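Suppose you are handed a protein chain with no further information: no name, no annotation, nothing but its sequence. What can you learn? This example shows the usual starting point.
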Amino acid sequence: MIIIGSTRPGRAGLPIGRWFAEAAAKHGGFDVQIADLAEIDLPLLADPHHPRLRQYVHQHTWDWSARVAAADAVVVVTPEYNYGYPAGVKNALDHLSQEWAYAPVGFVSYGGIAAGTRAVQQLKQVVTTLRMIPVVESVNIPFHAQHLTDGVFTPAPAAEQAATAMLDELVKVEAGVHRLRADVRATF
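A reasonable first move is to predict its three-dimensional structure. Written in C-alpha cells, the prediction is:
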C-alpha cells in the first residue's frame, strides 16, 4: 500500500505517488494499492477508545483498519513541512495500532535541499513504535518542483534507481516477516 501523505490542494505528493505506484507495479514484487489521505479524509482521532483496543465506533476507522491489515508492505510518500512530516500522516498512523505490526515500510520523501529526509527520520521513530519495520533504502527527492510539469512527475535517474533498490528490499523483508504479519491478521 502506497500512502500519499500530503493533503494540500495542488500537492506534489499526488504525482510523485502516482510515479512511485507505476514504478512499483513495473517492479512486480507487489500488487499495488494507493491510499490517498486526501481522498480517505480521516477525521482527527474521532474514535473515543485507544486504537490498541480495536473498539472502533466509526466506519471510516474500520475501513482504514481493513486496508492497513491487508497490506503486506507500506510505502509512505511524504513531503517535509518545517523539518517534519504532515499531520495527516501522523493521524493516519495514530488511528490504528495492531494493524501496522510487522509491516515493512519504506519512504519516498521530497522537499528542498534536504529532500524530505528530516521528515523520514521523525517518521521512523513513530513507525517503529507501531512495530513496523523500516527498510534502510529510501527514495529522497530534492528540489522536487524541478521534476514536475503539468502535474506529472518525471524522476531523475537516481530516483528511479533508489525506487528499485527500496522495492527490492521491501520484497526481501516482507518475505522474512510474512509469518509474523499473518499471525497479526489472524487475531482480527
